[in-house]
Amino acid sequence: MAFLKFNKAELVNLSYSLKREIILANKTGAICNTSIVTCNTRRYHGLLSVPIDNFGGGMYMLLSSVDETLLVRGKPFNLGIHCYGDIYEPRGHKYIIDFGADPVPEVVYKVGEIIFAKKILLTPDKDQVMIRYELRQAPSRIELQLKPFLGFRNLNSLTSQNPQARTAFKKVRGGVAFNMYDGFPDLNLQLNKAESEFKPAPYWYNGITYSDEYRRGFDCREDLFVPGYFTLEMEEGDSVILSASVDEIGPRLLNSRFNKEIEAMGTIESYHEQLVHCADLLKRCRGGRHQITAGFSWLYTGLLRETLNALPGLTLFADGNTEEFEAILDDLIANEEERLYHRTTQVEAPLRLACVLQEYIDFGADARSVWKKYGDTVKGIIESYAPGHRNEIALHPNGLLWAQMDHVALTWMNAYINGNPVTERAGYQVETNAFWYNMLCFAIDMERRYASPLSDFIRKWSPARPCRAEFPEYVLESGEALSC
After folding, report:
1. Are 118 and 68 in contact (CB under 8 A)?
2. 4 CB contacts (<8 Å, ≥6 apart)?
3. What domains, with CATH codes, occur in the chain?
């Protein structure tokens, strides 16, 4: 069953095709993101972007794009496409006749009698993207040239031609490796064909424009470095794989690895399976740390509010993986001690932990075991909201939380203009107090059942629960996040 289909008229129509994107992700946190015609329209578009520990785990784009050129009896047909201001050059999209995404993105080109295809695979467990090129139909031999555009920049920044860039390369098995700036990993570009050759032809392509950034009024132009190109001959039925990776790979292993990963993906038979597959891509494990990515490609990984909000759905109700649920939650608690116990502009976020644990218990977890493992964390969060602990929020005598910090947005409504919050929301925020009431009730009930009904915690916090007169019943029942 094909979940994504585009006809030729849609593909060659840039006003249509440039708004449709490919987004691939893997368990290491690497992503591949571009349009379906492989023309980058946003600053965070690129064929390989990876987290870099040297830079605090931030996302950095190493390989922006690859231009493919077919030389037929000496005549070049460039299949790439880039935007320069109002001009698209080259205009390789005009050769596209088909696009598929089952199980990986595939773009098919027709040049005269030649049928040429490329499949893009982001390796599930490595910072590596592989592109397999197939010459499916050709009346004679052709020459294939592959021209890489290097980025080596933060995913949300732009780069420009500069004398600090290291443009030299070193030879590796089946290809070459680049490292343009200090702190970056090597980018190894390798092909699995021994007869391929890399020809140096260093050149900066200046003024590449990202049309979506231009439309939104953001900085939209950058310069990308092209070190040269790979070249090899192909005949009908031939295929070749280009690997871009932070690790040097054995070229002979590329084809078998590509086939193995495609086979492992299996066949998706329903939209529910497709949803579960896509949801799984938001979970990652890098360096032994289990985290959730809040969104591709402009949000971050491991955010407190977003992780607590998404965790049950991405684990328990997606595939029932309770071990992964606890692994993500444990790492979140370990990584977010400052926000959980001391200070945060997401004033309601720590309180969401009670909801997550309640869903875990409803899913079937043993309540006693849950409280034994996470009870101290819950109680510690509650204690942090007592008077004198946090500057951003205060517990009032009526049992409600008052949030206020001048010139700071203290909830999910955190838009700023010129450094000033659009909405400070000072006061008794409804959703914050709904989470607060829920956490107090949950903690007192669990403590009474599985610890001691006479514990100091119960004696201290039972009187602190907001009474129904202070917290209207319609709020308690609906939980609607209405602003006070």
Report:
1. yes
2. 99, 100, 101, 102
3. 8-265 (2.70.98), 271-478 (no CATH)
As a whole number of angstroms, the distance between CA 302 and CA 289 comes to: 10
What's the rounded Cα separation, in Å, for the pair 200 and 228?
4
What are the tokens at 51?
């987290």
> pLDDT at position 10, please?
92
* Both tokens assigned to 49: 């972007």
CB atoms within 10 A of CB 229: 19
Would you say 409 and 416 are in contact if contact means Cβ atoms under 8 Å apart? yes
Q: Which of 334, 349, 340, 344 is nearest to 289 (CA)?
A: 334
Give the model's confidence band at 478: pLDDT under 50 very low, under 70 low, under 90 confident, else very high.
very low
Exposed (0-12), middle (13-18) or buried (19+): which is 408, by Cβ within 10 Å?
middle
pTM for the whole structure: 0.88
Q: Amino acid identity, residue 425?
A: R
First and final CA of the chain: distance in angstroms?
49
260 is written with which tokens?
């193995």
Angle at 397 between CA 396 and CA 398, to 5 degrees: 90
What pLDDT digit, counting tens, does each position of 112-157 carry?
999 999 999 999 999 999 999 999 999 999 999 999 999 999 999 9
Q: What is the pLDDT of residue 464?
A: 75
Contacts of 437 (CB under 8 A, 6+ apart): 465, 466, 471, 476
- Identify the residue whose tokens are 């996040």: 481
Residue 30 has pLDDT above 90, yes or no: yes
On the 0-12 / 13-18 / 19+ scale of CB atoms within 10 A, 131 is: buried
Q: Identify residue 426 by its one-letter amino acid code.
A: A
